[in-house]
TrEMBL record, chain A:
GO cellular component: mitochondrial inner membrane; respiratory chain complex I
Compartment(s) where it occurs, according to its Swiss-Prot or TrEMBL record: Mitochondrion inner membrane
Top-level lineage group: Eukaryota
Chain segments annotated as transmembrane: 40-58
Function: Accessory subunit of the mitochondrial membrane respiratory chain NADH dehydrogenase (Complex I), that is believed not to be involved in catalysis. Complex I functions in the transfer of electrons from NADH to the respiratory chain. The immediate electron acceptor for the enzyme is believed to be ubiquinone.
UniProt keyword list: Electron transport, Membrane, Mitochondrion, Mitochondrion inner membrane, Respiratory chain, Transit peptide, Transmembrane, Transmembrane helix, Transport
Family from the record: Belongs to the complex I NDUFC1 subunit family.
Protein's membrane topology: Single-pass membrane protein
Protein name according to UniProt: NADH dehydrogenase [ubiquinone] 1 subunit C1, mitochondrial
Subunit structure: Complex I is composed of 45 different subunits.
From TrEMBL, chain B:
InterPro entries, per database record: NDUC2
Single GO cellular component term: mitochondrial inner membrane
Primary site of residence: mitochondrion
GO biological process, one term: mitochondrial electron transport, NADH to ubiquinone
Family stated for the protein in its record: Belongs to the complex I NDUFC2 subunit family.
Species this protein is from: Panurus biarmicus (Bearded tit)
Protein name: NDUC2 dehydrogenase
């Protein structure tokens, strides 16, 4: 880990562009996630997206059921032999 | 071809919690738990918002996929029965 930190210092001082391996060593340049302080924006977005998705799903299901019943009625009055 | 053509709405819609949506919802939840495990968080108690979101997305995608599956099967069945109807000689049961 110390070698990685030295490498970071070298890159920051010397090169404007990180070397091609920067992605594989990105664990040394990003900050450690702090799980003690919730990312309230992320939490709010996640819950609101979930609620929206459930609402969309329920609405779609109910619309599908109604459309199917409607078409069955229409078909039933048109043709009694159809399967 | 559209993902769900209009004639697919003539089919009875699958129940909201069917095998596909439940399985994909479970997979979504499991992937949230896996994400907790990989980031060294308590597996079940952490990131409940993430677990709910992933499970919801899984259920949603599963429902759409099951609808398409049923449509494809119904289409194949219809073509099969049409073929049988047009070729009665090949399907004598006498």
């Amino acid at each position: 880990m110390a070698a990685g930190l030295r490498a970071v210092r070298r890159w920051a001082l010397a090169a404007p562009a990180p070397p091609g391996l920067a992605f594989t060593r990105s664990a040394f340049v990003v900050q450690k996630a702090n799980n003690a302080q919730p990312n309230w924006l992320g939490v709010g977005l996640a819950f609101s997206t979930s609620a929206a998705l459930w609402a969309l799903l329920l609405k779609e299901h109910n619309e599908d059921v109604m459309e199917y019943e409607r078409r069955k009625q229409a078909r039933g009055q048109k043709c009694t032999r159809c399967s | 071809m559209a993902f769900l053509p209009d004639e697919s709405r003539s089919l009875p819609p699958p129940p909201l919690l069917n095998k596909g949506s439940m399985w994909l919802g479970f997979m979504g939840w499991l992937s949230a738990l896996l994400d907790n495990a990989f980031n060294q968080r308590p597996v079940l108690r952490a990131g409940v918002h993430r677990q709910i979101l992933f499970a919801t997305v899984g259920c949603f995608v599963g429902y759409q996929l099951v609808k398409r599956t049923e449509y494809v099967y119904a289409k194949v069945d219809r073509e099969l029965f049409e073929y049988i109807r047009h070729h009665p000689v090949d399907f004598q049961t006498a």
